Structure formats: structure tokens, C-alpha cells
Amino acid sequence: MYLFIINPRSGGGAGHRTWLSVEKLLKERKVSYESLFTHSADEAEQLVAERLSHQENWTAAVVIGGDGTIHSVLGALRHSRVPLAVIPAGSGNDTARGFGIPLTLEAALEVALSDCYLESDLLSGADGLTLTAVASGFDAQVSENVNTSWYKRLCNAIGAGQLAFIIGILHTLITFKPCRVSVACDGTEHVYETAWLVSICNLPNYGGGFLICPQAKADDGHLDVCVVHGCSRWQLLRLFPTVLKGRHVTLPFVSMLRGRSVAVTFAQARHAIGDGESLGTEPLAVRCESGALRVLSPQAVSSVLAAAGTAASCQASG
Ligand SMILES: Nc1ncnc2c1ncn2[C@@H]1O[C@H](COP(=O)(O)OP(=O)(O)OP(=O)(O)O)[C@@H](O)[C@H]1O
């Protein structure tokens, strides 16, 4: 039995439209399912936990929505052994990209109905769980600005979600000021005097496909950290095209760190986001919860083929 969790307003209404098409395909294929429409993150966490506890035989929990919708059910799915599947219907869809899940409905549904999952790490902090990345500083401010903007709705309406982030970057570049930050990685402190951003990543990408930590792997038991510091506004602007390909990592004003626990304290209050959702402006303390969430992903197939004993599995369909 599959549990479909639908956020009808993700992607500016794409969630609802996607569900109508998916439901048709499920009926054609005679797949057993239950559906759950959710209207807020809090409601979703509670309803999903209730549904999962009512019966034992869930094959997967399939989210139709964007990164925020997936974020809302992490607490309910963590350690449940019910795998998460994703049919992307958001504007950024970074979770889907990071797990190699196709962005087209039919192909994503094939993955959701398959049985190959990765045992993904989760980022755990005072504000709960995050799957993709906890970002603080400039890019969190971009997200805050985009999420409260008129241009996000317009870009979603014309199917150009990524364009909203580009507009948001330019908007934030004019107003944001860098400041001192302390980043403690597995207890070792690194201090940067004029820091723009600190990103703690489980997946390589966020912000609609930017490869901020290109070497990050969901199932490696580590967090990858990118710090951008000591550069001018103009250098920061020129950095963004390089991030699309992950080529920024060798620049002199980019520092990459790695660890299992990361604490970030800015000298001035700075916004943070997890999976694109606001985490407020308090200092961050994030640790890696190894293999805490099963995720149905095409990457699991290659992991299984590549090495025995990897944190991935393909089982007979039930
Ligand atoms: N389970 C949920 N049901 C309904 N609304 C939710 C749920 N989880 C989060 N939300 C709210 O809906 C908003 C939009 O959802 P979501 O983030 O999935 O889509 P998006 O913003 O269009 O895409 P993306 O996050 O991929 O850019 C969230 O920012 C949050 O405010």
C-alpha cells in the first residue's frame, strides 16, 4: 500500500495538477494507495505519523510537492523504515535533483513504484530535521526574499521557478552585508572575518540546482560545508554561474570543510533555512544522523551495482 502525500499549493498549484495525473495512472495500473492532502507543515507531520502508525504494510510514502513539503514529513518518516518517494511538484525541487529523481511525472512515478532505496543521512538540529542543506547568510536571505516576493508566484505561473532565484540573488546582492562567522567542524573552530554564507550540505545542490557542495553524498555519513568569505559583491555575483557547475570550490574566497557535526555562529543575526524553509536567525548546531531515512532513488541501483555492503538496497517488490 502506497501513501501519497499531496501539497496542492506547491509549485504554485502544480501539486494539485500533478496529483490528478498521478491518480489516473495509479488507477490504470491498479496500484493500491491512500491519498492525504495536507494544508500546512505541522498538519502534515501529525497526519502522516498517524497514518503510518495505523497500519504496518506501507510500501512507500510518496510526496507530491517541493522541498518544503518533503521537509514537513521527515520527522514522521525518520527511522520508520517506510521509504520516501518524491514526485517533484515544487519550484526548486532540489531534493529530487539531489537523489537523481527525474523531474517528469511518469519517470518519477516509475522510481516511486520501484524498490531501490538509499539509506540517506539527515541533518539534525534544534529546529528539527533537514534533508538537503542548512544554508545561512546570503543564500538564506535570498530564499527569504524570494519566498515573500511577487516574482516567485509569477515565475511559477510561467513554469520558470529557477528564474525567481536569479532575480532574488540580484535583489539580495544590493542590500546584504557580510560579517564575521565562526564555523566549528567536529570541534575545530574556523573563523572568517567577512563571511557571506555558510552552507551545510547533505546533497550537492540547492536553490534550484546550484551545486554548492558538489562532492556531498546523501549516504556517506558526513556533512559537507561551503563557506564564502572575503570577496567583493562583484566577485560574489561572478561566483554564481560557477556554482551551477560546482566549479567555485577552488576559488581563493571559497573554503570547503567536512565533518559529522557543524556549529555556525555569525557575529550579527543572519537568516538560516533548511530545505528552503525558514529556521530563524539563531546560531546553528547541526549533526549528521547517518542512514536515518530510506529514499527511493535511481542512484540506489548504481550504488548496489558498484559495491556490495553499500548503504543501498533493491528488494523484490511486495
Ligand atoms: N505538507 C505540507 N502541506 C501543505 N503546505 C506545506 C506542507 N509543507 C510545507 N508547506 C507550505 O507550502 C509551501 C510550498 O511548498 P513546497 O516548498 O513544497 O513548494 P515550493 O516552494 O513550490 O517548491 P520548492 O520548495 O521545491 O522550491 C512551503 O513553503 C510551506 O509554507
UniProtKB/TrEMBL annotation:
It comes from Paenibacillus monticola. This is YegS/Rv2252/BmrU family lipid kinase. One of its GO terms (biological process) is phospholipid biosynthetic process. Its cofactor is Mg(2+). Signal peptide: none annotated. PROSITE patterns: DAGK. Keywords: ATP-binding, Kinase, Lipid biosynthesis, Lipid metabolism, Magnesium, Metal-binding, Nucleotide-binding, Phospholipid biosynthesis, Phospholipid metabolism, Transferase. Residues 1-113 form the DAGKc domain. Belongs to the diacylglycerol/lipid kinase family. NCBIfam families: YegS/Rv2252/BmrU family lipid kinase. One of its GO terms (cellular component) is plasma membrane. The keyword Lyase does not apply. Pfam families: DAGK_cat, YegS_C. GO terms for molecular function: ATP binding; kinase activity; metal ion binding. The keyword Transferase applies. It comes from the Bacteria. InterPro entries: ATP-NAD_kinase_N, Diacylglycerol/lipid_kinase, Diacylglycerol_kinase_cat_dom, Lipid_Phosphate_FormReg, NAD/diacylglycerol_kinase_sf, YegS/DAGK_C.
